[in-house]
Specification:
- The chain is an alpha+beta fold.
- The protein has two domains: 84 residues, Glutaredoxin (3-Layer(aba) Sandwich); 132 residues, Glutathione S-transferase Yfyf (Class Pi), Chain A, domain 2.
- Helix content is 53%, strand content 6%.
- 36% of the residues are buried.
Length: 242
């Protein structure tokens, strides 16, 4: 079975959390919006799928995954679905629920990072909300970022199977997503993120460990891995990283 991932073709965004899971597991998938319109793919195909009357449970927005007749939207829900199929979550129900909880917390932090550059409205440009963004980013960097990192550090320290992973002793989709979160923050707020990581050595080690995982490392070197930019969730505006 080949999974169909639908997400905007020019940015990493929230779709990257799903891509990392698919790449780490060596799964077969098609990044539909990046495909050729001549082959029935591209952004128009993604939009047409979302509007199609035959899709009884339409996604509100990308990313969404199509697996046969199953359509799953929302990053955390997609990973909840893919995790057991890709071997990226523990078999036990309690550990699966804990992994999902971790993923939802990662999603919370992703949303807060995004809102540093769009604190007023999604329909406004960054230039239209700079004073509000500066205030929001200052609060995020001084208080929220260290608080989240301290919590993830404590989760790693309390893992009874060792501090190399968030859950158990094997790589999970939560590890991959936490890598992406830290990587995005290192791009958006390099100064503040490096300072926070000095107090979270286990988190820093997890980031480096995931980056060296063979399938992930190969993906990071490939053209499939788009660079961060000022169009995605994580954006680097130097004035916000004071």
């Amino acid at each position: 079975m080949t999974y169909q991932l639908h997400y905007w073709p020019t940015i990493q965004g929230r779709g990257e959390f799903v891509r990392l899971a698919l790449e780490a597991a060596g799964a077969r998938y098609v990044d539909v919006a990046r495909g050729s319109e001549a082959q029935g793919q591209g952004v128009n195909a993604m939009a047409a799928f979302m509007r199609a009357p035959g899709v009884r449970q339409p996604p509100f927005a990308p990313p969404f995954l199509v697996d046969g007749k199953v359509v799953v939207a929302q990053t955390a829900a997609i990973l909840l679905y893919l995790g057991p199929r890709l071997g990226l979550v523990s078999k036990g129900g309690a550990k699966r629920l804990w992994t999902h909880q971790l993923q939802l917390t990662i999603a919370d932090m992703v949303a807060e990072a995004h809102d540093t550059h769009h604190p007023v409205g999604m329909g406004l440009y960054y230039a239209d909300q700079k004073p509000e963004a500066a205030r929001r980013a200052r609060e995020f960097c001084q208080h929220r970022l260290p608080k989240y990192f301290a919590w993830f550090e404590s989760v790693l320290a309390r893992n009874p199977k060792g501090s190399a992973h968030l859950v158990g002793r094997r790589l999970s989709y939560a590890d991959l997503s936490l890598f992406q979160l830290v990587d995005g923050l290192l791009y958006a707020f390099p100064n503040n993120t490096r300072r926070a990581l000095q107090h979270a050595p286990l988190l820093a080690a997890l980031h480096d460990h995931v980056a060296q995982h063979k399938p992930v490392a190969a993906y990071l070197r490939s053209e499939r891995r788009l660079p961060f930019s000022e169009e995605g969730v994580f954006r680097h505006y130097p004035e916000l990283d004071a």
